[in-house]
Amino acid sequence: MTDRLDQWMDGYVLAWSSNDTDHIRSLFTEEAVYDPQTAEGPWEGIEEIVERWQEIDDKEDNWDFEWLPVVETDEIAVVTGRTRYFEPELTYRNLFVVRFADDGRCSDFTEWYIEEDTG
Known about the structure:
Elements: H1 2-18, H2 21-25, E1 28-35, E2 43-44, H3 46-56, E3 63-72, E4 76-85, E5 90-100, E6 106-115
Parallel strand pairs: 1-6
Antiparallel strand pairs: 1-2, 3-4, 4-5, 5-6
């Protein structure tokens, strides 16, 4: 199971770095739901996921990310992470819940993030 999660998270980081449509599409099923837990609500379907993802456009050389699995089954993974932005200097703690389709792509993704006090 860990290989699947490692591959998916590697793909997630690649898509985050590249902001490339094909990289983003490779992660999610056509009907996937991506819920960033914001007031705007979830992104529904691959077209909206790609569009909203690319609007964020974090610059590749302005952040780093580390993650650890907490729970992993055939259907779901829970991942903790830490994202550090260099300019402006910000650090976020992350929690991801990834629900997998049979083909290894994500059918439902929920993320929570909170700014970490680094002072």
